[in-house]
Amino acid sequence: MFIKQIKFLKDMARIRKFAAYRRIERPYxxxxxxxxxxxxxxxPRHNITSFEMGNPKKKFKYSLCVRPKRDTQIRHxxxxxARQSANRILENSFGTAGYFLKLRVYPFHILRExxxxxxxxxxxxxxxxxHSFGKPISVAVQIKKGQILFSLDVNHKADLVIAKDAMKRIxxxxxxxxxxxxxxxxx
Length: 187
Known about the structure:
Blueprint: H1 2-11, E1 52-54, E2 62-68, E3 72-75, H2 76-94, E4 99-103, E5 109-113, E6 135-143, E7 150-154, H3 160-173, E8 178-184
Antiparallel strand pairs: 1-4, 2-7, 2-8, 3-6, 4-7, 5-6
Helix pairs in contact: 2-3
């Protein structure tokens, strides 16, 4: 059983390290309804399953938010991983009615890759830099310094300890360092 799992993991497509995509650049990712005018032929789908979790209708007393300390790009799978880990803590502690977690950004930016072949016989199928625009491989969020990434609302002062822990989990999953802000909502 264990050997089959290792073989399966080796056969899976590998994700390139995000250090290659962390820097924000001007996106040359024109998507048009006319195929000839479109540089990007197909937009990859993102893994984010929900943008709002918990109870959106209730008014809460305390708000927490996660803000990045610098401009960066964040891939959709990092955001989904952070959302899942924070939501798991919050659901187990407060139930679905005791909090409201919201993802405040959407992954519009299309990441591209121009894989260059190396090794014997690579010159026969590699285009080099002649067609270097690259194929779309993933999507990411381009986020500015201080922009709200996630926001969380809770009701009681005692709930802030668990809420801070959930927000720390989100911050640890991000490719940049983040600030966690707490404020009291006035009714």
